[in-house]
Amino acid sequence: MKKRFFKKIIAQTSEDLRLIAALCSDSLTVSNKIKYLKDNKIFLIPIERPLNELGKKNKKIESILKFEYIEKSKSKNIIQDNDNKILKLITIDIFKKNNNFEISLLFSDNAAINLETEIIEATLEDLKKANDENN
Q1: Most buried of 5, 57, 63, 101, CB within 10 angstroms?
Q2: What is the SS3 assignment for 36?
Q3: Torsion angle, CA of 27/107/86/43, rounded to 10 degrees?
Q4: How far is CA 107 from CA 31, 65, 80, 86, 95, in A?
Q5: Among 79, 74, 78, 65, which Cα is nearest to 116's?
Q6: b/e burial code for range 55-72 (CB count within 10 A of at least 16 → b)
Q7: How far apart are CA 32 and CA 124, in angstroms?
Q8: Confidence (pLDDT) at 124
Q9: What backbone phi and psi angles, to 5 degrees, belong to 24?
């Protein structure tokens, strides 16, 4: 019997966020599925990411990248009306700006999302088991 696991990684420091950035590098998302729930201060990005941690870059897994306590969100070159626009996540950077953090999600085609928050609280959660037979 194969060992199965359900992965969830929580980032609360810039070092933790770098780990999530490495796991999500070269992930794909659809622009109109990115959601900012302003009243809840939650930012959600559904992604299809390579299984870099298992050395299986050809295999993909559906995951959700969630940022909490988001005060502001700004985007550049992301049109959510186009449901066919595929974005490739290149990296996630974090900067300290006054008393807040600015999290920058950098995508292909010069697209970007900047999130402003007082504290870092990000979660990467796989939506199905990584070594499920359907992968």
Answers
A1: 63
A2: strand
A3: 80
A4: 11, 14, 14, 10, 17
A5: 74
A6: eeeeebbebebbbbbbee
A7: 19
A8: 93
A9: -95, -5
- How do strand 56-68 and strand 122-126 relate by DSSP bridges? antiparallel
Domain ranges of the chain: 8-126
Helices within the chain (DSSP H only): 14-24
Q: What pLDDT sits at residue 54?
A: 67
Q: Which residues in the chain come in under a pLDDT of 70?
A: 1-6, 52, 54-57, 82-83, 128-135
Q: What does the DSSP 8-state code read for residue 53? A: G
Tell me how far apart the alpha carbons of residues 126 and 135 are, in angstroms, rounded to a whole number.
Answer: 12
Q: Which two tokens stand for residue 103?
A: 């999290």
> Both tokens of residue 25?
């590098």
Q: In the chain, what is the straight-line distance between the N-terminal and C-terminal CA atoms, in Å? A: 16
Phi, then psi, of 7 in degrees rounded to 5: -95, 135
